[in-house]
Amino acid sequence: MNEKKFRRIVVKIGTNALMENGKISKGVITELARQLSIVRQSGSEVILVTSGAIGFGIEKMGIGFPKKNPARQAMAAIGQGALMNYYSEAFARHDQNIGQVLLTNQNFTDKESFKTTGNTMEKLLEFGVIPIINENDAVSAEALSAKKPFADNDGLAALIAMSFGADLLVLLTDVDGIFTDNPKDNNTAQKIKGLKELLSRNVIIGRKSDYGIGGMNSKILAVKSALGKGISVAVCKARENAVVDVVNNMCSGSFFEGGTDG
What we know:
By secondary structure, the protein is α/β, with parallel strands linked by helices. It has ten helices and eleven strands. Helix 2 packs across helix 4.
């Protein structure tokens, strides 16, 4: 990995990475806020794409993961406020301001809406604010379906990185990188570290997570999309100092250097 300073970073954290023992973990959010505050205060601009609204809604309602979209959208509406409340408290400990941005398909397909969204993002970053982005699942007609430019928050994070000039995308998950198979099920699975290896190795997609809707396939698609625009991508476990380590060129997961052939 080359030594470089990243100007604008998009960090995405998935629902499974936020969950511990079937509940959203305040500890994970607290640690993530600490890391992103450090990165922001070091001079890099930071955009956070977060899952978790549906997970919070499920926790608050005490039900299992809904199978149908209307129920999932209802869980998102129930959980979004609680999710942002946790983030607000966590970032406030580091005197870091945040701003919530809920997006839909129209923000990327309508020219005027896209321009307005971009202007808002640029102004938030100019103010030193960390935008916290999620899809507006509760009201989006395309939410939780593949009929949009992003089918999950991995795709949304890649699209944001490409649309708003990021030079690094960090995908935080519950395994430390992209592997040839699910390392939780197969202890011989090998970590993939470069684009050439990603393109040449056979990756077994495996099952999706219990709470997320993306899975490893969506991460691979996000990696390829971002790399196609010259954006570096890290896929790593949401652990202590994970993002700080990536920024300091010490990624423990899979790292794909933008602007190279891997």
